[in-house]
Amino acid sequence: MTTARTILGIESSCDETSAAVVVGGRDVRANIVSSQVKLHAKYGGVVPEIAARAHIEQIRLIIEQALDAARLHARDLDAIAVTAGPGLVGSLLIGVTAAKVLSLAFDLPLVAVNHIEAHATSAALAVDPPPWPAVALVVSGGHSSIYHVRGFLDMELLGQTTDDAAGEAFDKVAAILELGYPGGPVIDRIAQTGDPAAIAFPRTWLHEPHFDFSFSGLKTAVLYHVYGKGEKYGSAAHLSAQQLADVAASFQAALIEPLITKTVRAAQHVGAPHVVVGGGVAANSALRAGLRRACEEAGLHLHLTPIEYCGDNAAMIAMLGHELFQAGRLADLSLEPHGGLLRPPRHKRRKTRRGS
Ligand code: KG4
Ligand code: ZN
In the chain, at which end, N or C, are there fewer CB atoms within 10 A of the end residue's CB? Predict the structure, then answer.
């Protein structure tokens, strides 16, 4: 039995500044998330310079709030876990620098956490013991991937999007429909009054045996449906409220079907009894309901990440940081953020698809 360690998690990879205090990897004492979504809304997406500046303004306050909420002082901590990538380098740098400062000032070990791996394991924040081995579906604004998670520190990529991420497709379709940013929550809401079978949008690679996704064809199909065939520019103003709801529901249905089908098939392929789902799009109500149905039919145990931990948050960073810390996998003050490629370049993608 190992001692329960108190970890401060710091997350700043995109447009949320977050700090959390987690004891023993699961006991979340505080999880403060400050979203910049209002700052970016008028630009229709995250503006890196604005994001970095907002992180600088917020980071100290958010860390203090997390420590206060947990009724702790920095000297009570056992380690600092920070997102080192992938993400926006300017944003990551703020969290990494704050973590280094605390590490130096309070003589605390530093742990570097991979943001996507944290999303892939975030469901374990609400499941004890952790549900491994599992297949993890990670769907957010920057990534859409399927992993085989054998343990917190042992996971393998089985497939991923070769173009747009699922959340990115939600955001782009919301822009076409003039619904504002971010698009996921509003499409989720509007789709509830629409008919998911109204328009037969494409389900790319649904029946292909690999576990990769492609969503750019779906986005273009929505664009042509709304603006007219071959039209790149236009307006959604001619759509009635019901037509808008039908487009939203039909798009959402076409996007989630490959996610659900491939996740279940991947679990069967690797023989994993559990399915976990994380990332901002994991909050989508149709995806959650569809996965519940499909996993039940396939006899798989489904663990949906609680909504509060679906979007970017530091609790998942502290949890994975705890495992890395216990395994002695420490970083040091030479740690640098890695923006990384969210997706490998096209020539490498094929290999990933066929070779795994
Ligand atoms: O994980 P996240 O907060 O940030 C990234 O790491 O990207 O994910 C943000 C994405 C956005 O694209 C947003 O539109 C999407 O998650 N999202 C949703 C929902 N809530 C957020 N997509 C579909 N349905 C939702 N309810
Ligand atoms: Zn994320």
Answer: N
Please give the Cα distance from 356 to 145 (Å, whole number): 13
Q: What are the pocket residues of ligand 1 if the criterion is a CB atom closer than 6 Å to any ligand atom?
A: 14, 140-142, 167, 170-171, 182-185, 188, 279-281, 283-284, 311-312
**Which residues line ion ligand 2, judged by CB < 5 Å?**
140, 312
What pLDDT digit, counting tens, does each position of 177-198 carry?
999 989 999 999 999 999 999 9
Query: pLDDT, tens digit, for every residue of 285-314?
Result: 999 999 999 999 999 999 999 999 999 999
3-state SS, residue 83: strand
Q: Which residues contact 205 (CB under 8 A, 6 or more apart)?
A: 212, 213, 214, 258
pTM: 0.93
For residue 183, the CA-to-ligand 1 centroid distance in Å is: 8
Residue 78 CA, ligand 1 centroid: distance in Å: 32
